[in-house]
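Dear colleagues,

For the upcoming journal club I promised to circulate an example of a predicted protein-ligand complex. I picked one with S-adenosylmethionine because it came up in last month's discussion. The inputs are reproduced below in full, followed by the predicted structure.
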Amino acid sequence: MTPAARVSAAIEVIDAIERERRPAADALKSWGLAHRFAGSGDRAAIAGLVYDALRRRASSAHLMGAETPRAIVLGMLRRERDHDTDAIAKLCDGARFAPAPLTEDERKHLDVADLSGAPAHVAGDYPEWLDPYFNASFGDERAAEGAALASRAPLDLRVNTLKGERDEAAAMLADLKPDATRWSPWGLRIRLSAEAKSPPIHAEPAFLKGFVEVQDEGSQLAALFSGAKPGEQVLDLCAGAGGKTLALAAMMQSKGQLFATDDDKRRLAPIHDRLKRSGARNAQVRTPKSIGSEIDDLKGHMDLVLIDAPCTGTGAWRRNPDAKWRMRPGALEQRVKEQAEILDRALTFVKPGGRIAYITCSVLDQENGAQVRSFLGRHGGWALVPPVDVAGALGERAFMFSKAARLAPEGILMTPRLTDTDGFFVSLLRHTG
Ligand SMILES: C[S@@+](CC[C@H](N)C(=O)[O-])C[C@H]1O[C@@H](n2cnc3c(N)ncnc32)[C@H](O)[C@@H]1O
């Protein structure tokens, strides 16, 4: 397919997403099935255009003065791909399979490409109803934080120290030119260009042999900040597919006991293969039962309970750009309620002097600082571990990290703009009796 035909296809897919209110991945799949002549390179390039347009949907529409799928894609080419008006006009030449030629009005908007005066939710590309929440979290910085959350994410890998060191894994993946991550001692980062297909990391020997796992640097740091140590009794209460569990197992060097559970057994399913590949020897998966509790015997025995809480996922919008436009206010309320229930349940598993690591991949204070304050209001005998001490887990990098991230009394907030990671919040609470 020509570059112009790919742009036409992206406009068609955005149209299907908007008209049929479908997730982007679904609409792209249907388009691929209906256009079997398109090769994998074409499909990847079209997906790249579609996701970039969704990232910058509000600002692209503002720039073009229109909200049509065509306007959103053209505005994105200007904003995200840095094409000037002439380059866009070349793609839109009206030839067979190419988009129709630019109108005078479109040319004018592309030439001016001005976002000054745009409201924060437009410049920051997030839903308008979230503006008060973004304002509460970021104040005047909210447009810049939103814009960073709308940017493309790199591919981050966590090196499994049960198998080898970071340098060894980097050498195994030399073709992909990974860099060591700035903060995480275990991270490798692969930067992808806009047109590039994601490398098939799951087919790499380094992956198949368990040397690396795919995990955003922010998620790696969230696990690191829990301070899990060899010999401890640790419960990962919302383990899902096991991203944090695997990092905890490596931190514990297979010593002590690590229990992983989740209230949804389907989400937990991939953890078995992942643990096997990792070589971890101290992890037990407790699959939920329909009657009774699978973890009652752990009550009062844990040194650490890690809660990687169900949340709005606002911090992970870089990886899921259409989710932000589908998010509804009811979802925030629901997550806040679930988080409070999980926190209240978690404390029953902690032994005297033990701790809870509360983690979200959200940037909204309701799910983060406010949730922790509310927990402390409901339960006596708990104290916050000062975030500066928590960040101390980074050793010599702790000072710079503490300047980059947002350290509030309740916990540490990372964002793409502050730390160049996904958005994560981590709070460490200690039982004081
Ligand atoms: C953010 S995800 C976990 C991601 C996972 N820890 C990782 O690092 O890959 C949140 C998880 O919480 C689970 N969850 C939701 N409500 C729960 C509850 N009441 N108890 C335990 N797990 C719950 C969800 O099924 C989901 O898998």
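Two points we might discuss: Residues 3-20 form the longest helix (18 residues). The CA atoms of residues 310 and 338 lie 7 Å apart.

See you all on Thursday,
B. R.
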